[in-house]
Amino acid sequence: MLAYIIRRLFSVVVMLLVVTLVTLSIFFLIPKMTGSDPAAMFVGKQADPASIEAIRQKLGLGDPILVQFWHFVSGIFVGRDYTGGGDTIHCAAPCFGYSFRTEQDVWTMLTDAFPVTLSMVLGAAVLWLVLGVTTGVVSALKRGTIVDRAAMITALAGVSLPIFFTAMLSMLVFRTQLGWLKSSYTPITESFGGWFGGLLLPWVTLAFLYAAMYARLTRATMLEVLGEDYIRTARAKGLPESVVLGKHAMRSTMTPILTIFGMDLGALVGGAILTETAFSLPGLGQAAYRAVSERDLPLILAVTLITAAAVVIANLVVDLLYAVIDPRVRLA
Amino acid sequence: MEPLLKVTGLQKHFPIRKGLLQRQTGAVKAVDGLDFEVYPGETLGVVGESGCGKSTMGRLITRLLEPTGGKIEFQGTDISHLGVSGMRPLRRDVQMIFQDPYGSLNPRHTVGSIVSAPFKLQGVEPEGGVKKEVQRLLGLVGLNPEHYNRYPHEFSGGQRQRIGIARALALKPKLVVADEPVSALDVSIQAQVVNLLDDLQEELGLTYVFIAHDLSVVRHVSDRIAVMYLGKIVELADRKSLYESPMHPYTRALMSAVPIPDPRRKGVKGERILLKGDVPSPIAPPSGCRFHTRCWKATEVCKTQEPPLLELRPGQRVACHHPEDAEGVTIPSARESVEVTITKSPESPKAPEAPEPVEAPEPEAPASAEATESTEQADAPKSGEPAEATESPEAPEGAESVSKPAAKDDAAGE
Amino acid sequence: MTDNLTKTGAAVGEPVETGKSAPGDTFLDVRDLKIHFPTDDGLVKSVDGLSFQLEKGKTLGIVGESGSGKSVTSLGIMGLHTVGQYGRQKARISGEIWLNGRELLSADPEEVRKMRGREMAMIFQDPLSAMHPYYSVGNQIVEAYRIHNDVDKKTAKKRAVELLDRVGIPEPAKRFDNYPHEFSGGMRQRAMIAMALVNNPELLIADEPTTALDVTVQAQILDLMRDLQKEFGSAVVIITHDLGVVAELADDILVMYGGRCVERGPAESVFYEPQHPYTWGLLGSMPRIDREQTERLIPVKGNPPSLINVPSGCAFNPRCPYADVPKGGITRTQRPELTLVGERHHSACHMPQEERTRIWTEEIAPKL
Q1: Whether A144 and A253 share a structural domain
Q2: Domain ABC transporter, which positions (chain C) (predicted)?
Q3: What pLDDT is stored for residue B370 in this prediction?
Q4: Does residue A101 sit within a domain?
Q5: How confident is the model at residue A95 (pLDDT cuts 50, 70, 90)?
Q6: Same domain, yes or no, for A126 and A246?
């Protein structure tokens, strides 16, 4: 088991290195192919040639791709100095790059944005897990009734409506019309109430989408599980229905849901772009959005890495959890 | 008579891959050295428990799978490693009927297009047109030709199996390999299909390889029967000998395990041999004789020496160190006799119709017999069990060494 | 005295046949059991008026092909058609099931639940899918024991290990913690039997207990079941399509066709003096391992009936080779009732008994 975890972690590192290399290459190659100057991209079009040249030297854009790669990787561990055009910018030890656009250390930007995203995603996750699974189970047990149909129609709406639509709608109703929950994001360290109030609408909006997906998945899985022979055996043993459902059926039903849950969490941490943008939350998603629209290479690189790391680690956790839940899965 | 199908040293190992680099860590030895022939017009039954490799064998001889070793000859042509295009002409002559009448028919195709598919694949235009021929085939297998445009789900299990049979017969094959053709069917329907297969064989002169786990059905349909255990044939004999005087302990146990539909015989305990445990895994089959872990007659020699498949009685080949009912058959001489047969003419083992007299060959090959005996004597003190020495481990080894290089040659040759 | 009974489930009409003996005299007494399932295509009459009795210590074999209603019957006795049918159209069950003097269909479902697993237990066909893959074999047995016995885990574990040992699982204490997938097919079925027997049930229902097993393993399991019945003295209902298996185990045989009983009686009578053309068909269809047969099999023509449109008269009529034998004015739409044809031997056929005996002895038996 331990050997398995170590091997998996090792492959996570390898994968992150590959992602870095690929991202660097893309930004190295695209300007070459389109004939534009990468350094100009980094500072903006109106920059004077001198500052472009300074950036070129600081970023080492003249160096071969592997040298750039090495600079980046070593920067993470020992920090990095950007020298060129007569001055030097120092970027301290976990250096994931320096954004010349915002003139900020990328790491600082990320550490500012990360708690926002995490608060939003985790809060929404709790909400959608509880809501989705409950709805799904109830729906399965009441299959074919009015309750089931109403739940599934709502779920269908949740799945089909785009998040920016529900986000706008909820803001229109609650913030503009009713005047509730108007506070913007406040860190939990400053005020719990402010944090909660600021995030409630994003939570509900995001959870609506995911709860709908989870309700459908839970319902389908539950129905399948209820048809299994071992459920019949459990009843034949004389177990009360509460045990049959709560223990035997639920354990099987939760397995695929946990898998999806882990993946969704990982993916969202890296990129709840729409939700964050719609609610103007200064999280990772918004950072990613800004980085891409402003072609801020160091920031793009860092956000890409974080996203990849989140997904891969979530995957690892899911695999480990799976082995704990299902004894048939052997980790070797 | 020339065999229609001749199989020598047939092997199929499925590799097991593990880890990041997908290194091969072992193999499922599904089929591990089979020798048998199928003669025109006969039905060869193949029985065995799950995991014995009988289905893999069926897929190998129809070349749905490629063997990892050994040779399959159909009408004298080596088809062991033919590619898709090389196999095309053969596909007409060799057809397969599958177990699952639900899974083996495409639910989106009409019966007409299912049964006519072989014509299209082979580019054959039957006399009188495809539709007429398909309707004739449907009639032949006892279906209403009017049902040409219906879909498989409109038919019952037994009728679907008939559709599968019609499809298999479309190109007038010579050999039909039926893999558990009736085991998914109810008893009354099973009998209909068995009778149909019987009639078709008579009418069309078909040759069957009939793979099944049901020993009663196999007894009913087969002329000769091969009993498989963990990838090997343990006994191959004509129906009467096999069912009335089985020589391999596994065959005997298998026969005795079948519940007899006769309440007056219930609880007659002496008749039944209860084997211990389950069939071992084909990934790591037991050493020596694969049956020794469950055999009540097993001795030391069984654990170390793999018994070769030898003709101990006319038309009855057995792979066992301690065969049943061996009186009248002096085993050492019988061993030598077969050894002689193999060394003299490894390419053409005797057909069951022309069995070699068991006692006869001793004078024919004194040299070989002597050689065996002398090594035997040399080894006897080591074995520590003088009683066992007469049924020496040497004989099997001799036979092994004949068949093994042959298999290797084949592998090297491709 | 049956009129004081209240029945659950929608009554399907038809008055309940009053028994010859007072209910509760015999250990298991099933009377005019009907189990119908409403579906979109119509009412599926899976079991349509089935009656039988079974004494303790005896084995009844219910034989039939797929769709004959034999498995539905077994689940009906266990009361498993009425629990867990969430949101679905409910099965319509009528008739009486008397177990040990208690009527189950009219009883409080909670009472029946408490009887399940303790007084009546069941073994299923495929032991791999019938066990929960996420719980160890031992824990599943412990669960079955503790739900009916107020004991601590340790005592329950001791009991489970004892039973695993009894059903022939080597190193039972070690195997206790194994999961079902770590057992072989035969071992799983043994564990399943241990689970069913853990509360010493008086009635054991085995639904195709050996169908998924290899023949050598089947022999082991049949042997075990026979020994265990002697030891536990329970009544056993074994449901199977394999006449060999019933011949091996059953004292009485009940042949089902189209949801009804066509013939029932002592095993020997049913095998040696069968009185129904369908039973003849089953016997004629079956290849025999114990004799050299050169003759063709005698199959039953046609296909099993759809349970939605069961023929109004004898369900077997469309497939019966003797449908045209004169029956003294009885029409095809009249349903044959079970009549006594020998000692405890009943058969439901319109043909005169002498004619049936003649056909069997002269036409059928010599060909088998």
Answers
A1: yes
A2: 30-283
A3: 38
A4: no
A5: confident
A6: yes
In a domain, B270, yes or no: yes
Task: Please report the pLDDT score of residue C299 as a whole number.
Answer: 85
Contact criterion met (CB < 8 Å) for B219 and C288: yes
List, edge to edge, every strand of the sheet that includes C92-99: C42-54, C28-39, C92-99, C102-103
Q: Please indicate if any CB of chain B lies within 8 Å of the CB of C298.
A: yes
In CATH, what number is assigned to the domain containing residue A136?
1.10.3720.10
B227: in domain: no
**Per-residue pLDDT tens over the stretch C306-351:** 888 777 889 999 899 998 887 777 878 888 999 999 999 999 999 9
The answer on pLDDT for A285 being more than 70 is yes
CA–CA min distance C92, chain A (Å): 18
Q: Which of B198, B240, B266 minimises the CB distance to C296?
A: B198
Inspect the interface and report whether the beta carbons of A232 and C195 lie closer than 8 Å: no
- Characterize the bridge pairing of strands C120-123 and C203-207: parallel
Quick one: closest CA in C to B193, which residue? C299
- Same-domain status, A316 and A170: yes
Does the beta-carbon distance from C271 to B198 stay under 8 Å? no
CB atoms within 10 A of CB C284: 20
CA dihedral B370, B374, B379, B383 (to 10 degrees): 50
Phi/psi class of residue B76: alpha, beta or left (left: φ > 0; alpha: ψ in -120 to 50)?
left
Relative to beta strand A80-84, strand A87-91 is antiparallel
* E strand or H helix at B54: helix B54-61
Closest CA to B110 of B79, B143, B66, B154: B154
- The alpha-helical segments, DSSP class H, found in chain A are 2-34, 38-43, 49-59, 65-78, 106-141, 146-160, 163-170, 192-226, 229-236, 241-243, 250-271, 273-278, 284-293, 297-325
Strands B232-238 and B310-313, how do they pair? unpaired
Domain that holds residue C354: 276-367
Question: Who wins on pLDDT, A178 or B293?
Answer: B293
Residue pair C110/C157 in contact by the 8 Å Cβ criterion: no
Number of domains making up chain B: 2
Measured CA distances, C87 to A144, A149, C52 (Å): 6, 12, 32
Q: Is the ipTM of this complex over 0.90?
A: no
pTM, two decimals, is: 0.80
State the residue range of the domain holding B379.
Answer: 232-413
What does residue C115 show for φ and ψ, rounded to 5 degrees?
Answer: -80, -30
Residues A8 and A51 in one domain: yes
B319, B309 contact by CB (below 8 A): yes
**Alpha carbons A151 and A145: distance in angstroms, whole number:** 10
Residue C168 inside a domain? The answer is no
d(CA C295, CA C297): 6
Structure tokens at B75: 């009408």
Residue C148: pLDDT above 50? Answer: yes
pLDDT of residue C27: 92
User: What six digits make up the tokens of A187?
Assistant: 């860190």
Asked whether the beta carbons of residue B259 and residue C247 sit closer than 8 angstroms, the reply is yes
pLDDT at B34 over 90: yes
Do A56 and A152 sit in the same domain of this protein? no
Cβ atoms C281, C368 nearer than 8 A: no
Within this chain, do residues A309 and A270 fall inside the same structural domain, yes or no? Answer: yes
Query: B27 falls in which pLDDT band (50, 70, 90)?
Result: confident
Asked if residues B208 and B182 have their Cβ atoms less than 8 Å apart, the reply is no
Q: Is C211 on the interface with B (CB under 8 A)?
A: no
In the numeric block, which tokens belong to residue B177?
A: 């390999």
**Within an 8 Å CB–CB cutoff, is residue C245 touching chain B?**
yes
DSSP 8-state secondary structure symbol assigned to residue B17: E
- Six-digit token pair at C332? 């095809």
Q: Which of C72, C78, C86 to mutate to test the interface with A (most CBs of A within 10 A)?
A: C86
Rounded mean pLDDT of B269-289? 82
| pLDDT tens column, C261-278 | 999 999 999 999 999 999
Instruction: Look at residue A39 in the predicted model and tell me its pLDDT.
Output: 67
